[in-house]
TrEMBL record:
<dbReference type="InterPro" id="IPR009000">
    <property type="entry name" value="Transl_B-barrel_sf"/>
</dbReference>
<feature type="domain" description="Tr-type G">
    <location>
        <begin position="7"/>
        <end position="239"/>
    </location>
</feature>
<dbReference type="InterPro" id="IPR000640">
    <property type="entry name" value="EFG_V-like"/>
</dbReference>
<dbReference type="InterPro" id="IPR014721">
    <property type="entry name" value="Ribsml_uS5_D2-typ_fold_subgr"/>
</dbReference>
<dbReference type="InterPro" id="IPR020568">
    <property type="entry name" value="Ribosomal_Su5_D2-typ_SF"/>
</dbReference>
<dbReference type="Pfam" id="PF00679">
    <property type="entry name" value="EFG_C"/>
</dbReference>
<dbReference type="Pfam" id="PF14492">
    <property type="entry name" value="EFG_III"/>
</dbReference>
<dbReference type="Pfam" id="PF25118">
    <property type="entry name" value="EFL1"/>
</dbReference>
<dbReference type="Pfam" id="PF00009">
    <property type="entry name" value="GTP_EFTU"/>
</dbReference>
<dbReference type="InterPro" id="IPR027417">
    <property type="entry name" value="P-loop_NTPase"/>
</dbReference>
<keyword id="KW-0547">Nucleotide-binding</keyword>
<keyword id="KW-0342">GTP-binding</keyword>
<dbReference type="InterPro" id="IPR000795">
    <property type="entry name" value="T_Tr_GTP-bd_dom"/>
</dbReference>
<protein>
    <recommendedName>
        <fullName>Tr-type G domain-containing protein</fullName>
    </recommendedName>
</protein>
<dbReference type="InterPro" id="IPR035647">
    <property type="entry name" value="EFG_III/V"/>
</dbReference>
<dbReference type="InterPro" id="IPR056752">
    <property type="entry name" value="EFL1"/>
</dbReference>
<dbReference type="InterPro" id="IPR041095">
    <property type="entry name" value="EFG_II"/>
</dbReference>
Length: 1027
């Protein structure tokens, strides 16, 4: 495949919301250009790319699969992807291997929540997108819109999609401007501002040719260029001029035969834009003549004659008008020609695409190490250059990216090789025990040539070629067993594949878990990690029905973990095997695969394990009073260590919600800055060897976000409280200078503040003073010094106490970490809580003998451990004392339902404790769109129940949104007169929702639960009285 051939390759994926017609569109493209794989009459009914039984049964795509098509002299690798939110990880794998994306939008339903997600994914992966407006026929015979109304609807959808792309562009534009404004000198570099790409031009413009209007089910579609060429001779204008005029407010004046704007048109409001007059109206007439009983049947004959169409008479004489219509329109405006000509024209070939995408695939790395071998750097740069120009010569370094591993039954592998030789597929690298399933790598070659039997290096995302020996665990040597061209479910063996091709590779099953970079040289940077839109949130514990099958389950879990790019398999602290999936449909498929393919054993699946968090009540109205009481130190919980030497006083306060959110979302960056448990790993994956300037900018960014969060809390107050707001801001600024640690895990959304420096130690005891370690790292402290600390030069005993107090700082932090990792309600992590911990150490009592001292320390355990336990207990007790609340995760839910089922839908939402945000009627359709928040704990079975109650008419999509505190007090006891009147003395109060949820979690974890075992009891009576 020479340089000329690489220009003839296109790699595209189809992305859209669920049920917007991706697989049906793929069917028609395969029928037209797949080399006889699919008969055109079966297109749209067979769903060729959905070859799994589960996909056919549910009628949704569950995995991304590729097929090679041939259009004219172009080779097109088409990847079909799922639209369901549960399988959005498959969208990421498809997007990474493609150069362009066909974004499908349903003309009736319009832009949906998953449309936003796939547009974001294509933007992140730097794909060139084309817009396909599908199901145009529904506007004609379902909604019965006039051509003008249909045009306005299509115009609105194109505007909306352009608006979404514009926000992504402006995000980048603003971040580029910010990085220039935050220059080292603090001055604006106006020269560089000119070079930042602005977003003034819309991404999708029909006149540019990157928008197609199609009906995938009937097999027709068109771009504006088709109609421009047809009308060019009739109207006596050039096709280029017509193509610009056939979209937007352009009108045709029949008298002067001129194309004019809105002002130059005669006929005022009745005038129709050219798109309506010359494109939609003829289409509407054809549909009406075919489908309406009194339609003009002669019009179809006229279309057949004028366009010289070859329609078999058998199809024209069919009794079903839909088949007659389909026969004519699919030949008049063939769908495959419209789509594939747009692909060839608008989507770049691999050479152009890789030079544009290189900054995303292989970001430039700054070298920060000294004494690095320059030859390694030179070779790594050569590899990057080869990827950038898509060098397909045999001498170029071979580089490929594996986006996922997928399992294929061994019996499905081709029995013959590329030259017709018979293969033995069972001499597998997996060994005989796993020979039923063979793992193939779904890969794209970015540079050079790959051959079967070639040896390559498999590089993980953490590999760094400059570190040499220390990176051995991140690089493996592997042999490529064989290469296949993917044809949907079928596989076609090939001897070699060149840069720009998408292939399946056998022989890497033992070397790759999820994704990796393949390279013919060690001196190559790994490709950047893929971005996933959501994280696996639905967790269940699984175990075999028969304990003897445990080994088979372990093997099955290993295979499932490798076969699914998104599933997570872990072992919990209680020893359970926990399976984490993206949602219910994803989980059901994983369990089915385990039972029938990978483990082949009967399984017991637990109810979903839902994560909660714990916090305390906090109202914005009394936030200033909370801060004042915290400074006065009046309301605290006190604990003493067992040996009586140490007193721990803890005060607690609720953090502003905005600040909690910032700390939670920035956990990865904070981990890097503070040097917490995440260490270097995340930054290594994203930007290995990044320059120190980037670190500084991330510190500045976090600092800005934290200050903005506090500011936003103040702005939410009324204008009348300006004086109060200013005091609140000043107090918070003082507190932010005293951040000792974050927790749990050193990067969580809870804060430990150091003790107020001005507080004096009483008697002979000494205060353990923490250092504002986190504040210093985040640049919240200008120049922190211990100058305020009282100078203790009195005696050796006091100095020894000071040294001991200093050594106990880590124990205090560890106690805080333990407390925030397991709260008092149900051992779940704390959320948005701030602690001020004062620890006083008293000197040892006069001991007669040194052995007595040792005996005392052994009696109560090590002193540091006692301090840790005391701090943990005090923190938990402080939370219990300050009105604890449970925090639960919330899904954002988008529902679509016909008007007659609104009542049933609201009944389901009420039962699931949902909170409705808004409802609106979709213009020009009988559907209502409702947005609501649904608790994750209530979401299981939600879709099934909704379908059951609305007879399958309503559909729902769930996306993880945020954490929200339950307002109910789990320990509610009636106190006021009204409460006592309503609930009585408290003995008959039923447990509220919060208490029920807490008890459920406590039971699952084996913690004690307060509940009455006997509800009603009477004395036993015996019928026979025998004295």
């Amino acid at each position: 495949m020479g340089d000329f051939d690489a220009h003839k390759i296109r790699n595209i994926c189809i992305l859209a919301h669920v049920d917007h017609g991706k697989t049906t569109l793929a069917d028609h493209l395969i029928a037209a250009t797949g080399g006889g794989l699919l008969h055109p009459k079966m297109a749209g009914k067979l769903r060729f790319m959905d070859y799994l039984d589960e996909e056919q049964r549910r009628a949704i795509t569950m995995k991304s699969s590729s097929i090679a098509l041939h259009y004219k002299d172009y080779s097109i690798n088409l990847i079909d992807s799922p639209g369901h939110m549960d399988f959005c990880s498959e969208v990421s794998t498809a997007a990474r291997l493609s150069d362009g994306a066909l974004i499908l939008v349903d003309a009736v339903e319009g832009v949906h929540i998953q449309t936003h997600a796939v547009l974001r994914q294509s933007w992140i992966e730097k794909l060139t997108p084309c817009l396909v407006l599908n199901k145009i026929d529904r506007l004609i015979y379902e909604l019965k819109l006039s051509p003008m109304e249909a045009y306005n609807r299509l115009l609105r959808i194109v505007h909306e999609v352009n608006g979404i792309m514009s926000t992504y562009k402006s995000e980048k534009y603003l971040s580029d401007v910010d990085s220039l404004l935050a220059g080292p000198s603090g001055e604006v570099d106006y020269e560089n501002l000119e070079f930042i790409e602005d977003d003034e031009e819309d991404t999708f413009q029909p006149q540019k040719g990157n928008v197609a209007f199609v009906c995938a089910l009937d097999g027709w579609g068109f771009g504006i260029s088709e109609f421009a060429e047809f009308y060019a001779s009739k109207l006596g204008a050039s096709s280029a001029a017509l193509q610009k005029a056939l979209w937007g407010p352009k009108y045709f004046n029949p008298k002067t035969k001129m194309i004019v704007g809105k002002k130059g048109v005669e006929g005022g409001s009745k005038a129709r834009p050219m798109f309506v007059q010359f494109v939609l109206e003829p289409l509407w007439q054809v549909y009406q003549s075919a489908l309406e009983p009194d339609g003009n049947k002669g019009l179809l004959e006229k279309v057949i004659k004028s366009f010289n169409l070859h329609v078999p008479p058998r199809e024209l004489q069919n009794k079903d008008p839909k088949i007659v219509l389909q026969a004519v329109v699919s030949r008049w405006l063939p769908l495959s020609d419209a789509i594939l000509s747009m692909v060839v024209k608008c989507i770049p070939d691999p050479i152009a695409a890789q030079s544009f995408r290189i900054s995303r695939l292989l970001p430039k790395r700054e070298v920060l190490y000294d004494a690095v071998d320059s030859s390694i750097i030179a070779e790594a740069d050569l590899v990057r250059k080869s990827v950038e120009i898509c060098d397909s010569s045999p001498e170029a370094p071979s580089v490929a990216f594996v986006s996922k591993m997928f399992a294929v039954p061994t019996k499905m592998l081709p029995q013959r090789g590329p030259n017709g030789e018979i293969l033995n597929n069972y001499s597998d690298e997996n060994g005989s025990s796993e020979s039923d399933e063979c793992f193939l790598a779904f890969a794209r070659i970015f540079s050079g040539v790959l051959y079967s039997q070639q040896r390559v290096f498999v590089l993980s995302a953490l590999y760094d070629p400059l570190r040499g020996e220390s990176m051995q665990k991140h690089v493996q040597d592997a042999e490529l067993h064989s290469l296949y061209l993917m044809m949907g479910q079928g596989l076609k063996p090939v001897a070699s594949a060149k840069a720009g091709d998408v292939v399946a590779i056998r022989g890497l099953g033992q070397h790759i878990l999820k994704s990796a970079t393949l390279s013919s040289t060690r001196n190559c940077w790994p490709f950047s990690s893929m971005a996933f839109q959501v994280s696996p949130t639905l967790r269940v514990a699984i175990e075999p029905s028969d304990p003897a099958d445990m080994t088979a389950l372990m093997k099955g879990l290993r295979l499932l973990n490798r076969a699914d790019p998104f599933v997570e398999v872990t072992v919990s602290s209680r020893g359970e095997h926990v399976l984490a999936a993206a949602g219910e449909v994803h989980l059901e498929r994983c369990i089915k695969d385990l039972k029938e393919r990978f483990a082949k054993v009967s399984l017991e699946v637990s109810p979903p394990l839902v994560s909660y968090k714990e916090t305390i009540e906090g109202h914005t109205s009394n936030a200033l009073d909370n801060l004042k009481s915290l400074r006065r130190g009046s309301d605290y919980v006190e604990k003493t260590t067992l040996n009586g030497r140490c007193d721990v006083r803890v005060q607690v306060m609720r953090l502003p919600p905005a600040l909690t959110k910032v700390l939670d979302e920035s956990a990865d960056i904070l981990g890097d800055i503070i040097g917490g448990k995440l260490g270097q790993t995340n930054r290594d994956v994203q930007k290995q060897g990044s320059s120190i300037l980037q670190d500084e900018s991330s510190v500045e960014g976090i600092k800005k976000h934290i200050m903005d969060a506090v500011e936003s809390e103040i702005l939410s107050w009324s204008e009348t409280d300006k004086d109060r707001a200013e005091k609140y801001k000043l107090k918070w600024q003082k507190f932010l200078r005293r951040i000792w640690a974050l927790g749990p895990g050193q990067v969580g959304p809870n804060i430990l503040f150091t003790s107020d420096l001005k507080s004096k130690s009483n008697d002979l005891s000494v205060l353990v003073r923490g250092s504002p370690h986190v504040s210093e790292r985040l640049g919240l402290v200008d120049n922190y010094s211990d100058g305020d600390t009282p100078a203790d030069t009195s005696s050796e005993e006091t100095q020894a106490l000071d040294m001991e107090a200093e050594s106990l700082q880590n124990s205090v932090v560890s106690g805080f970490q333990l407390a925030t990792a397991a709260g008092p309600l149900c051992d779940e992590q704390m959320w948005g809580v701030a602690f001020v911990v004062d620890v006083y150490i008293s000197p040892l009592a006069e001991q007669s003998d040194e052995s007595d001292i040792n005996q005392q320390s052994e009696q109560y355990g090590i002193f540091t451990g006692q301090v840790m336990t005391a701090v943990k207990d005090a923190c938990r007790a402080a939370v219990i004392q300050n009105k604890p609340r449970l925090v639960e995760a919330m899904y954002f839910c988008e529902l679509n339902t016909p008007t007659e089922y609104l009542g049933s839908m609201y009944a389901v939402l009420n039962r699931k404790r949902a909170r409705v945000l808004k409802e609106e009627m979709q213009e020009g359709s009988p559907l209502f769109t409702v947005h609501a928040y649904v608790p994750v704990s209530e979401s299981f079975g939600f879709a099934d129940e909704l379908r059951r109650w609305t007879s399958g008419a309503a559909s729902a999509l769930l996306v993880l949104s945020h954490w929200e505190a339950l307002p109910e007090d789990p320990f509610f006891v009636p106190k006021t007169e009204e409460e006592i009147e309503e609930f009585g003395d408290g003995s008959s109060v039923l447990p509220n929702t919060a208490r029920k949820l807490i008890n459920t979690v406590r039971r699952r974890k084996g913690l004690p639960v307060e509940e009455k075992v006997v509800q009603h009891a009477t004395k036993q009576r015996t019928l026979a009285r025998k004295v």
